[in-house]
Amino acid sequence: AHDFRSRSDDSEDTELRFITCQSLWNQIKSETEQIQEDLNKQLLDNLVSFLSRSHSQFQEKMTEWTCRMKFREIPTAALVLGVNVTDHDLTFRGLSDVLQDNITPYIALLEAKDCPGIKNLMQKLMGQLMNCDIDVDSLEDEDCVQVSQNRIRCSMSSLISWYESVTKKTDSETPSKKRNSSSRHWQSPPVVVILKDMESFTTKVLQDFIVISSQHIHELPLVLIFGIATSPMIIHRLLPHSVSSLLCIELFQSLSCKEHLSTIIDKLLLTSRFPFKLGEKVLQVLINIFLYHDFSVQNFIKGFQLCIVEHFYSEPLSVLCCQLVDVKKRVYSLSHDQCENIRRLPSFRRYVEKQDSGKQIELLTNDSFLKEETEKLLEDLHVYHENYVSILRCLHVFTSSLPKYPLGKQIRELHCACLENRVWETEEYESSLQLARMLNKTDLVTMLQQCVEILMSSSGKEFDKTVEKLKEFLTQFQNLEAEASQERDVSVSSQKELQKKTDLYHLQKTLLELKESRRSKKLTKFEMLRFEVVDYIDSLVRKYLVPADDRTLHEIMYFNAATVLRGHLNAAPRTALHTALNNPHWYLKNQALKCDGGGISNKAPDICIVYKLHLECGRLINLVDWLEAFSTVVMAAEEPNADAASSDQVDDIIHARFIRAVSELELLGFIKPSKQKTDHVARLTWGGC
Amino acid sequence: MPNLEHPAYPAADLLHLESLVPCRESQVSMLLSIFGERQQFSIPSIFIYGHTSSGKTYVMQTLLTTLQLPHVFVNCVEYFTSRLLLEEILLQLQSCSSEPEQTSPVHCDTLNDFVRLFKQAVASRELQDQTIYIVLDRAEQLREMEANILPAFLRLQELTDRNVTVVLLSEIVWELFRPNVGCFEPFTMYFPDYSIGHLQKILSQNHPPEYSADFYSAYINILLGVFYMVCRDLKELRHLAALNFAKYCEPVVRGEANERDTRKLWKNIEPHLKKAMQTVYLREISSSQWERLQHDGGEPGQLKGLSAHTHVELPYYSKFLLIAAYLASYNPVRTDKRFFLKHHGKIRKTNFMKKHEKTSNHLLGPKPFPLDRLLAILYSIVDNRVAPTANIFSQITSLVTLQLLSMVGQNDQLDGPRYKCTVSLDFIRAIAR
Predict the structure, then answer these.
(1) Residue A251: inside a domain, yes or no?
(2) Distance CA A98, CA A48 (A)
(3) A219 by DSSP, 3-state: which?
(4) Which positions in chain A touch B283 (Cβ < 8 Å)?
(5) Residue A548 shares a structural domain with residue A610
(6) Hey, are the CB atoms on A83 and B401 less than 8 Å from each other?
(7) Residues with Cβ < 8 Å from A348, sequence gap 6 or more?
(8) Helix or strand or coil: residue A453?
(9) Where are the beta strands (DSSP E) in B325-372?
(10) Are residues B403 and B269 in the same domain?
């Protein structure tokens, strides 16, 4: 849908950018799919074991007394998925794939909008079930006779006979084939019916369906899966006890969407695997849409995709936004225009200004020198990313355990803070350091250990020293323990002294002394060490967590056009409509329409005039007055001497234009005919947005 | 106790029948006398009603099968259209005829066809001198089909001119069936609820083979003591009995008590049953989970029921929308100005009135409100400015699909849609936190 080639000049490597963009997106897409699969694995495994349990039990001990006495309930899985309905499709697709592989080939996915009545539900169910077995013969689109036969089948008994025939067929297959299939499915695999959106089903349909299928549970091993977006209470609200007593409901909860998002951000953004990065504002926009509006991880990823596309489309230098291995080749194949583009980058200009004059001239005039320099800078940027991520994680280890979370609980908040500006200059950072200086020893040690692990696992080479330093701290802490026991002895002895003296005066004195000594006493070794550790972490932060905006050539990797993104994702139809009608110049770009604030231009389209006039009215609008005003505005342009005829008799053409404009407004939903007063219309909107 | 006697049927069959339908002897003998002998014409239609699980279906079925009367048994919920219903009846007629020739699918769209095909089906059989019984279970569904179905079934004997009796089974009284235009009045018959003694007798009848009947009936006695107050449904009780019997036997199996030690057993099972009443019976936890729990000997407290998961996570603005909707539903319009405007007079005076109104409004239930009002309240309760983006509007729609709001009046969307808030105060409190 995005035509990169529409830009005619190829000096900006459009072709290459397109390819890079696509390959990058494909990588990210497969990565996200992998992540989602992993996240859903637990849930799907639980479900699979539930399904395999549900009917095998009955088959095994059919003869037992208890089983004969109990009436058979329909095994039902209530799947609580959260309110992010847009993500459910993916989960269900994954679920049906897994079920198809492990449990049963007979799966039907039903949606409420397809099933307004029990008849439609049965039709849909049978269509899906019977097709999933025999794809070849199309039951639906055949001639009249076929259809009428098809209609007979639309009952449970025909479904049962179908099921019997199908299972019998698999039984009578050749032994080799049978073994193959029985390893995956059992003799009589259950029929799984998934109701995607439980909330939207009407009560009657659900009740009827459950009653019918419970009557045939002996012949047709049915399993229901309810997709629930809100809370499992909805089952009790939709179904009366007489119906819900036919079900054997077990609850399954999917991962919360916030955790899901955290994982996605962790794996996609906080990694040096992908060269493309999101700027602070853009990330904030995406996260805000997620948290404020929809909770949909799918939409987040779509927004991310839009960022990628937009970045590669609008930024000519994004051709360099690739893996480090390709950078060299690409830098050297840059055209002169592209070099000029580099020189135009603000961050690069800042960089040039810092260099000495000889190098400045070289950079600004010599293309090949520029290319060398660019390559170096890009490598620096890559190294920066690697270090950034590791140190960010370390800092998160510290900040996430502080009380009240001055820098945010989630790593994404910390990430945003670090991207926004120099984090060590903010108040929150200051206060979190203060808090960190008060941590107790066990916490501090475990944190340091975590940091060591993070740094060890990172690919950056610079961290050998840091790791050593941290380990040194750890050993020092261990040494402290021995010393601490000695110290304790000292304090104990002083307390003993205190107990000896019973004289009130002396007691007071010693207490004062003790207090004095405590205040003036030098910090204990542990406290010293704690200060050292915090200072060291601070120095790491200052060194590595420089905001990306300060880095040279960050424009190549970072997408920062938050306003563009907001315009794309946060549609405001009412505002747009208002702008279009109130200020047609905005869209039509016609100089004649450029109006000077409050006045109503008569050159504007009729509907705009009518709209502006209606803004001045109250709840009910008199059509005659409105027409009067309209004709006055329209006639204002024509010669004023023609008024004699038209003042009391409105021109037919103007009348027609008015009527058309009013009906257009009605179509747009601004007014509606009112029954309260004849020849009046009612306004439906208020304010000027 | 009336013993079943009828000259037309062998005494052995009747005795067997009597053992199968305990506590329903009088109804069965009544039915038998109505049915008469095999070849005798009977009443065209019989209407049997009674509460859930008062044995209507079971009695009819056992009666017809033990005496081997030709019959068709159809559940009207399952065959939800008249066509399906009629075709199913014809199909069953074919299959219960002894001639193996026709199993071809029948097409029957209208009642007229049905009468014709019915005549054919009956005429082609050697059993034509016997009364055929058509039993329509859950007959209340017939009222939702075409208007002619119910009256036609009531006088099917007359229409087909064959020896046929239609039996309607339902949980509601005949008065609710009777069409406006009038119809043939069926013979109505009431199946009373089982009393506690009946329940005890019926439940004790099927005791497990390992244990004696006395032991089991003692158990049923305890079970009924706990559950009779809340549940008189025989099926449900039987289900619960089977679920909890293993626990009851536990002391006996372990050798701590013998089968006669009723008191000890009662002490063991009673709290367990009470717990079951709060969980399994309400389907808070499923019966298979319950069984597993029993098996592992764990505490039922560790397994949370369905109602425990009431918390719903909502996006930021959805929460505010829902709160705004709640306020709009339960506050009268005239108080809006007072509550949501920055500058308003007389707060102190109205404080008392506010409280008074609130309680009464909660009793009255939610009132519908227009979209504009919802948005206006939203703007005033959210601290920062809210842009009226498509995202906000789509959230309203998604709240409707989640059944947290409901749309009132199915008129045009452009025409100022009205909504109602359907969630409870507790829910809103949880969200507003």
Answers:
(1) yes
(2) 8
(3) coil
(4) 236, 241, 244-245, 247, 249
(5) no
(6) no
(7) A342, A552, A553
(8) helix
(9) 369-370
(10) no
Q: What is the pLDDT of residues A453-489, one digit of tens each?
A: 888 777 666 677 777 888 888 888 788 776 666 655 5
What range defines the domain where residue B225 resides? 196-308
pLDDT above 80 for B347: no
* Residues of chain A neighbouring B246 (CB-CB closer than 8 A): 66
Domain carrying residue A635: 573-683
Give dist(CA B88, CA B110) in Å, integer: 13
Can you name the residues that pair with A74 across neighbouring β-strands? A247
**Going edge to edge, which strands form the sheet with A671-673?**
A620-622, A680-683, A671-673
pTM of the model: 0.79
Mean pLDDT of A264-276: 83
Query: What residues contact B14, with CB distance under 8 A and at least 6 apart?
Result: B4, B5, B6
Mean local confidence (pLDDT), A136-140? 40
Question: How many domains is chain A built from?
Answer: 3
Angle in degrees, CA A543, A545, A547, rounded to 5: 120
Ordered DSSP codes for B32-52: HHHH-STTS---SEEEEEEST
Q: How many domains does chain B have?
A: 3
Whether chain B has a CB inside 8 Å of the CB on A576: the answer is no
% of chain B at pLDDT higher than 70: 85
Question: A362's torsion region: left (phi>0), alpha (psi -120 to 50) or beta?
Answer: alpha
HSE, side-chain direction, 13 A CA sphere, residue B432: 15
Amino acid identity of B151? Answer: P
How far is the C-alpha of A637 from the C-alpha of A56, rounded, in Å? 86
Q: Read off the CATH number of the domain in which B388 is found.
A: 1.10.10
pLDDT at A139: 42
Tell me which residue of A677, A671, A482, A668 sits closest to A576, measured CA to CA.
A668
Structure tokens, A50: 């539930």
Task: Give the mean pLDDT of chain A.
Answer: 77
pLDDT per residue as tens digits for the range A206-222? 888 888 888 888 778 88
Interface subset of A 196-255, CB within 8 angstroms of B: 197, 199-200, 208, 211-212, 215, 229-237, 241-242, 244-245, 247-251, 253
- How far is residue A214's CA from residue A220's CA, in Å, rounded to a whole number? 9
Set of chain A residues whose Cβ sits within 8 Å of the Cβ of B105: 149, 152
